[in-house]
Amino acid sequence: MKRLNMSHNEITFGGILQPLVDRLTRTPQKRGKLSGQEVVIPRKDVGVIIAVDDENNIHLLVSPAPSDLDHLSKLDLKGLKIDVKDWAVAEKPAQSYLDIFCTTGSLPSFRRPFLRFAEDVLYEVSKSQTQPSDAVYKTCIRWRKFWSPDVKTEITREWIQGMFGELSFLSSLIERFGSGVVGSWSGPVGADHDFQSGTKLAVEVKTSTETPFRIICNIHQLDDSLFKTLFIACYRITATEKGRTLSELVREIEQLMGDDETALDVFYERLMAGGYTRQLESAYDNFRLETDDVVMFRVDNNFPKLTEKSFVRPPDHRISSIRYILELAGLKELSFNDVSGELNIFANEEK
Predict the structure, then answer these.
(1) Alpha-carbon distance 170 to 220, whole Å?
(2) DSSP readout, 32-58?
(3) What is the model's pTM?
(4) Which of 125, 143, 177, 315 is deepest in the core (most CB within 10 A)?
């Protein structure tokens, strides 16, 4: 196969591996052999090959191989394996490679994330003069939460419903404004609100199984003085066999984003930060949920709420996690279309 041509003026690998793997998987594979193509990077002392085996597992081969795997062997990454192996691939004689491979044959949902991970490895290897194995280790540490089998996130119905609401709202934003809005999904990275655009706009997403909506808030979420515009987006949620799973909703969003590699990278980052991991998808699939259309509420001076300003003296900083239940009855309900002109800020903000 021909070598992949790539500009050496800047280091960029976003989206280059998917078409190569698509081409490789269309070729019948021989048992115990790899079919691969060399990927050119701006380092003459390092070789990289992307390859697939007869079980449709994807391999990223990096040479020279390290003499030992001490630090890499300590990483316990489900679905991702790292070893030193001898391969004859891409019209090259047999040699030892650092073989990073993902069991995408049995775990097809890992395919796209692994290719993003592999492109991150290419970037890390290219930008420094460190040993390739050190660059791989550094990348693995950044992605460890995604690949680790020892996940600490507790799967509760409340977490599932909350994530389902946030992803449902993100899906609506992408359908209306395009994949660039994914950067506004700020809750997973520590913001007080699920979606934010500076101080211009914030949306807090809530789910409720009750009529009228009953939601749990903290004393920061409904402080409308912090934003020019603040909304609550509410979904009435029902457990039903006819509903979708969280995993299916993630797939739908991936399809909406298509080939926008930059947006997909942000999406996976936020998914990981929010506690979503691929190896728990079978557990997520125990919950099938159905939602009504989102109902929007504008939070203003007349909206019922508790904030720090509600107290004669602000709560002592040693008091944390103040929560209260709010019933959204007798309030003006708005549709997504009613407020789409204001939500457009998410699409137009500078990233």
Answers:
(1) 22
(2) T--EEEE---S-TT-EEEEEE-TT--E
(3) 0.62
(4) 125
